[in-house]
Amino acid sequence: MLNDYEIKLAIAPIAWTNDDMPELGSENTFEQCISEMSLSGFQGTEIGNKYPKDPKILKVYLDQRNLSVASAWFSAYLTTKPFEEVKKDFIKHRDFLYDLGAKVIVVSEQGHSIQGDFAKSIFKDKPIFSDLQWKSLTTGLELLGDLAHEKDMEIVYHHHMGTGVQTTSEIDRLMKETDESKVKLLLDTGHLLYSGEDPFEIFEKYSQRIKHMHFKDIRSAKLAETIDKKLSFLDSVKIGVFTVPGDGIFDYKPFVEKVKAAKYRGWIVVEAEQDPAVANPFTYALIARNYMKKTCDI
Q1: Which parts of the chain are beta strand (E)?
Q2: How many domains does the chain have?
Q3: Is the dihedral angle over the CA atoms 154, 158, 164, 168 positive or is it negative?
Q4: Residue 2: what pLDDT?
Q5: Is residue 286 part of a domain?
Q6: What CATH number is given to the structural domain containing 49?
Q7: 3-state secondary structure of 133
Q8: Phi and psi at residue 227, in whole multiples of 5°?
Q9: Partners of 74 in beta bridges
Q10: What is the rounded distance in angstroms from the CA atom of residue 104 to the CA atom of residue 156?
């Protein structure tokens, strides 16, 4: 793509099989997932738990379908575990992604996270980091950034519902208290909308530091139900709070225009965790792909 921007479009496997709730999509195979990604017109994928753990084997499957690896999620526990333990797991994850040709590593701090706890209300019980925990997080992330640089890779921090880095003020603090050369940002439209934040504001503040993006949308009625019933994050996923671009509340056209104008170079990953028995993954992949093409010219 010979433009000032270079956008590659991927899709996440979580629509086919949910790693946090394996009962959602347990019937969907890895081969079905990546074949339908390719048939939908996507160029890449992130990594799910059903994917082969050997990068050589995985690469064969993906090459047959003209898919590349955009990245994969890494759960950091910098606020709750010794750094050396996190480092060991990170290096293994980094090397796996490096062997697959990925350039960025998605990192999210899971210390104190409630995103997987059905007993916790996603808004009422959100964790708040202490100053000491913030220091452990920011120092640890910079060290992980150094480790990524050993392989000419970058870490991109994933703000996420139910964690200590969710809101605009928390994203601002993370960006302020980390070295921009070591810690980049992943912008996730769905998590910003869910939390009540403004994706435009975050992009405009940090456009030159954003090196990876997740595009998903929100069903407003389901978000209202989540708030009214004080649901957990996973319960809100099960009722359908998330959907793909083109099927929710957010108009991506002006947002993508800003992304292009900022000369963004990297992956945009369509990601919408839903119950695949209710929202057929292939159908929604096609909805998203057609929307991104017709409305956003990607």
Answers
A1: 6-11, 44-46, 68-71, 73-76, 104-109, 154-158, 183-188, 210-215, 217-218, 242-243, 265-270
A2: 1
A3: positive
A4: 41
A5: yes
A6: 3.20.20.150
A7: helix
A8: -70, -45
A9: 107
A10: 7
Q: Note the pLDDT tens digit of each residue in 220-253.
A: 999 999 999 999 999 999 999 999 999 999 999 9
Q: How far apart are CA 204 and CA 264, in angstroms?
A: 12
> Do β-strands 265-270 and 217-218 pair in parallel, antiparallel, or remain unpaired?
unpaired
Quote the CA–CA distance of 247 and 291 in Å, as a whole number.
Answer: 9
Please tell me the distance from the alpha carbon of residue 112 to that of residue 71, in angstroms, as a whole number.
24
Residue 1 lies inside a defined structural domain of this protein: no
Q: Which two tokens stand for residue 257?
A: 């225009």
What is the C-alpha separation between 244 and 247, in angstroms, rounded?
6
Residue-wise pLDDT tens digits, 263-287:
999 999 999 999 999 999 999 999 9
pLDDT(24) > 90 = no
CA–CA distance, 12 with 34 (Å, rounded to integer): 10
**Range list of H helices, 177-280:** 189-195, 199-206, 220-229, 233-239, 252-261
> Which domain covers residue 232, as residue numbers?
6-294
Q: What are 167-209's pLDDT values in tens digits?
A: 999 999 999 999 999 999 999 999 999 999 999 999 999 999 9
**Tokens matching residue 79:** 């606020």
In-domain check, residue 248: yes
